[in-house]
């Protein structure tokens, strides 16, 4: 479970860089997957990494909390 302070930093400004090298076939597959998800490659990889590190349930909950703040803002 993610604590509130950590939750905010999880969706904070992305300042850190992670680099890796992959095969041409892997890069092509990534491009297809990101395109199919209507995301950039960076956004797709960031989402996968966040889910793997923090857990799908917490990432989903935090996205929902962000949406709720926007929806309920005018109320």
Automatic annotation (TrEMBL):
It comes from the Bacteria. This is Ribbon-helix-helix protein, copG family.
């Amino acid at each position: 479970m993610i604590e509130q302070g950590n939750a905010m930093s999880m969706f904070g400004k992305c300042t850190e860089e992670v680099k890796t090298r992959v095969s041409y076939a892997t890069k092509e597959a990534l491009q297809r997957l990101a395109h199919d998800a209507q995301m950039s490659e960076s956004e797709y990889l960031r989402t996968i990494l966040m889910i793997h590190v923090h857990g799908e349930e917490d990432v989903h909950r935090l996205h929902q909390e962000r949406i709720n703040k926007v929806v309920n803002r005018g109320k």
